[in-house]
Amino acid sequence: MTDAFLTNLAFYVISFCVIAGGIFVVSSRNLFHSAVFLVFTLFSVAGIFVMLSAYLLAAIQVLVYVGAVAMLMIFGVMLTTQLSNVRIRYMNEQVWPALLICAGFLALLVYGLTDTPFATGNVAAPVEGAKAIGTLLMTKYVLPFEMVSVLLLAALVGAIVIAKKD
Amino acid sequence: MGSATIGLNHFLVLSGILFTIGMFGVLTRRNAIAVLMSTELMFNAVNITLVAFSRYLAPAAFTGQIVAFFTIIIAAAEATVALAIVLLIYRSFQGINVDRINFMKW
Asked: How many CB atoms lie within 10 A of CB A81?
């Protein structure tokens, strides 16, 4: 009973962090604040992964997203933006149509999701997640795994070639 | 984990809200890096959906978690290349507001 209550409480607190962080990311006038709230949101999404008992994915989320992607974003902010000049218009002139479209899209999405009967059995969470995922990546999904490694190498070389001064 | 009340729909609705927030950011922000951050929010929403389906529909197969794993890797590659392009645009045009970058229009 109290266990279920604590799970609910954790879910709602983490969801609030995800949504509030996301809103601050898109609405913050200062771009550096956006980047910091992005880190906050990504951490909260890792918490959601823990609630879904995807522990390996939560660790990967923290390492790759918080450690690499968000730091890359902060580097980008530092290199390209004059943060002192934050009084400029930071959204384009299509805020109200975009808000309307997004609200309609969300309403459609929620309607569709809650209306669809998914075949959710009362299945227990598997325990040996990391071991099973590692085995699957090396056996069944080895071809996409290798392709993704080649893609990462290509992106690395491509980023250097694009961004180097010539 | 997995109480009686928090179910698949809760995670799906949360993912939908996060995706919509990211979509709003992509549609309205002028700064290219803010647009990139909003796309990262959308990637994360999709990952929540994948992991939630994996947890509640086929927890022994781990398919959703592995697809989310690949999504994270591809998002990292995308962020790298996109930031390199943003740096190049900044160097050429002294600004990265996406509504000013219309030189491929004519």
From this structure: 20
Mean pLDDT per 10-residue interval, chain A, length 166 residues: 82 94 91 91 94 90 89 84 65 87 94 83 68 90 94 94 82
Q: Are B79 and B44 in contact (CB under 8 A)?
A: no
Domain ranges of chain A: 1-85, 127-166
* Complex confidence, ipTM: 0.89
Query: Which top CATH class is B8-93?
Result: mainly alpha
Count Cα atoms within 13 angstroms, Cβ side, for A86.
11
Checking if the pLDDT of B99 tops 70, the result is yes
How far is B60 from A124, CA to CA, in rounded Å?
A: 9
Contact B46, B52 (CB under 8 A): no
CA distance B103 to chain A (A): 18
- The size of the A-B interface in CB pairs under 8 A is 238
Would the CB atoms of A80 and B33 count as touching at under 8 Å? yes
Give the distance from residue B53's alpha carbon to the nearest chain A alpha carbon, in angstroms: 9
Give the separation between CA B59 and CA B52, rounded to whole angstroms.
9
pLDDT digits (tens, 9 = 90+) for B25-55: 999 988 888 999 999 999 999 999 999 998 8
Give the domain A1-85 fold.
Answer: Four Helix Bundle (Hemerythrin (Met), subunit A) (1.20.120)
